[in-house]
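Hey, quick one: can you model this chain's 3D structure?
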Amino acid sequence: MIAKNFVPVALNTDRLPKDADGDFFRELMKRWPQGLWVVTPEGKTLAFHYHKPDTKKNYAQNQKAWVDDTAAMLEEGVKAAGELKPRNARAVNPFPDRGLGLTKDGGARLAATVVGYGRNGQPEGAPAVDSAILTQEEWAAFAPPAGKESWSIPESAAKKFAVALAPVTDSIFVPRAGDVTAVALAAEVLRTDDEFIVVRFSGKWESKHFRDGDPKFPIAASATGTGIAVYDRKKKGLQSVLFVLKGQYKNGTAATATAAVVEWRAEKPPE
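Sure thing. Here's the predicted structure for all 271 residues.
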């Protein structure tokens, strides 16, 4: 329904540009500061929905209501728009290098997936999906240096793992490299033979930042983790990297246990 009838646009309403595009969305938000709108190119609102949890329902019931109400709102928008020529939308991968191969500059986009856990030990909501983007120089630091059995990963590269500390993807809640207050990532050769070198990593991270720079809204996160990498001697490059992190994410006074996977491989595995 979305692919045939809509042009989806996602935006952070706290960071609208000061131009005509920003004015377009600011006009919409006069009704409510956040939510989901169906609008015409001229700015006419055809349908709107903002989910407000029902205190009489449990988490699963509220999640289902959110989905059902959103679908109903979209159908309302389609009906209000009248007859439209269906869009010929084609699904594409916006980040084909996420967790696979090298970036254009020779670095790597590591695929980060983070889950938050409630007090009952069960996952809360869908996993957060993000990327840790390393430059060519930062990525090279993960490969074993000639003649060394152990070494340290530079802070600039290790801090990029900050995105793996938060079980959300909204940029105002996720720590970035500049928010990391303490980091240490060490590497050592685990075993080696004529073809491959296996490397083991161990690290710890701590971060702190304020939502929208306001000290009234502190966000702190921490994690420890281990990783494993395989280096191909003949190809002279890393073939796979896998990290597993365990931590805590604290938004204000609310603390959430987290688990994360950060992974990459040189080539797509066979089907």
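One thing worth noting: The two ends are 30 Å apart (CA to CA).
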